Amino acid sequence: MVVNVFVVSPDTRSERRIDPHITVEQLKGKLELITGIPAANQVITLLASETDPRVIAELNDDSKMLGFYGLADWQVLKVIDTNPAASLTGQLSDVSQVEKFELSDAEYASRRDTVLAYKKNHKMGRFADKNATPEPEPSTQNVNIPVGSRCEVESTEPGLSKRGTVRFVGPTKFSKGVWVGVEYDEPLGKNDGSVQGERYFSCRPNYGVFVKPEKVKVGDYPVEDLGMDDLDEEI
């Protein structure tokens, strides 16, 4: 039989499973490893619970078993250090004693392994070349995919033909370059013609998709019935 209790000290808090048949002396040996407080410096108080700080007992007899004090589930073993200077109690959580690593603005600016150096090297943010020629908007002149034409989209799934109608050709807000919006004949898509709140064309949910032009073949592709409606009825 074991009891679930909370162990708290100036530097620690943990949930532990403890055998009520061990003695207070044995408990102190275990708590030294948990709290860092030497067994000889421990004063252990048994509290009712974390929300009820009533003192149930002082575990002041090292020879007594824990069951003698009525140890029960979810009580609290509060461990006090009678000689904190010897065990450095409290210093583990005192960040004021931690030596801080600091750099002056000049030292930081001189380093080559910083975000600032990266932005300088790649002319980003305030280091961008204000006189640089902006990148031209993507053009559809070299994309011979008329809107409204029938098409077939290259699929990574063997034997699956994804056919549909071209509904959009041009630049988008969700990614750079020219994209082709296709309304599939069957619900094999990912959207309804809109992405991230921006609408490019309209179709039924899961019938729309956006692909790169090289994935699209335009031609006389008749509508194929893949039997998706029948599959839906069988589910």
Secondary structure layout plus pairing:
Blueprint: E1 3-8, E2 13-18, H1 24-35, E3 42-47, E4 55-58, E5 76-81, H2 84-87, H3 105-110, H4 115-121, E6 150-153, E7 162-171, E8 178-184, E9 194-195, E10 198-199, E11 208-211, E12 216-218, H5 228-234
Parallel strand pairs: 1-5
Antiparallel strand pairs: 1-2, 3-4, 3-5, 6-7, 6-12, 7-8, 8-11, 9-10
In brief:
The protein contains five helices and twelve strands. It has helices at residues 24-35, 84-87, 105-110, 115-121, 228-234; strands at residues 3-8, 13-18, 42-47, 55-58, 76-81, 150-153, 162-171, 178-184, 194-195, 198-199, 208-211, 216-218.
What's the name of the CATH homologous superfamily of the domain at 3-81?
Phosphatidylinositol 3-kinase Catalytic Subunit, Chain A, domain 1
Name the overall outline. Answer: elongated
Would you tell me the overall average pLDDT? 87
Q: Which parts are unreliable, with pLDDT below 50 for 5 consecutive residues or more?
A: 228-235
Radius of gyration (CA) equals 36 Å
Structural class: alpha+beta
Proportion in helices = 10-25%
Strand content: 25-35%
CATH class of the domain at 3-81: Alpha Beta
Q: Based on the coordinates given, report the CATH architecture of the domain at 3-81.
A: Roll
Q: Look up the CATH topology of the domain at 3-81.
A: Ubiquitin-like (UB roll)
Give me the side-by-side strand order of the main sheet: 2-1-5-3-4
Major sheet attributes: 5 strands, mixed
Order of helices and strands: EEHEEEHHHEEEEEEEH
| Count of discrete alpha- or pi-helical segments spanning 4 or more residues | 5
User: What distance lies between the first and last C-alpha atoms, to the nearest angstrom?
Assistant: 51 Å
Number of strands: 12
